[in-house]
Design brief:
6 helices; Lysozyme; mainly alpha; 2 domains
């Protein structure tokens, strides 16, 4: 009788152990699927229902290299369209400064003689070693006391770049001097060379 009872308990224990084993295997499978790491680097597993996002290294796009603009510094140099723009600018400034029609004619002809309407004109051929700059050819020389005529500290223009890059101011200063009777300060006027450019446009 005891042998029979022992056999029954043995069978029950085995069934219980099998159930426990199945339960443990199920728990292990669940844990491995949802919480286990995939490799030795311990990278968490990604649920299969989520999209995989791949992060790529952004490409660095450098701005295009801009080539410097080279202007002709010659008398009557540069494009005709640019010189026509200077011609129109001179007319506007003369109206702004209330020059008479006669003064405007003389000023325009003088500019044509000095720079050929090229705002970038540079004349470094003066015998005294000075240089003339811009559309109105302002000289970078100084008087006997060392005071700048046109370009430098205390003068109309702070530097040569202003003469080249601000043609409106150049024409405005020139118009002011014409109104004061100082047109003779420009060689094209004092030599009479300006007369051949009276009532002409850039060509």
């Amino acid at each position: 009788m005891q042998a029979i009872i022992g056999k029954i308990w043995y069978n029950v224990d085995m069934e219980v152990l099998k159930l426990l084993e199945k339960a443990l295997l199920a728990m292990k499978s669940f844990v491995m699927e949802h919480f286990a790491y995939q490799d030795e680097a311990k990278t968490p597993s990604i649920p299969s229902d989520l999209p995989i996002t791949r992060t790529e290294t952004p490409k660095v796009v450098l701005p295009p290299t801009q080539k410097p603009i080279i202007h002709s510094t010659a008398w009557r140099g540069g494009a005709l369209a640019e010189r026509m723009e200077m011609y129109d600018l001179a007319h506007s400034v003369c109206r702004e400064q209330a020059l008479t029609l006669a003064m405007e004619r003389d000023l325009q002809a003088t500019i044509a003689g000095e720079s050929g309407w090229n705002q970038w004109t540079i004349n470094a051929n003066n015998k005294n070693g000075t240089t003339d700059w811009g559309i109105c050819q302002f000289n970078d020389g100084k008087n006997k006391q060392g005071v700048p005529f046109w370009i430098g500290k205390g003068a109309a223009f702070k530097d040569k770049d202003e003469c080249l890059n601000d043609p409106a101011k150049c024409i405005r200063v020139m118009a002011r001097e014409f109104k004061r009777g100082n047109a003779k300060w420009w060689v094209a006027y004092s030599s009479g060379g300006y007369k051949q450019y009276l009532d002409t446009k850039p060509i």
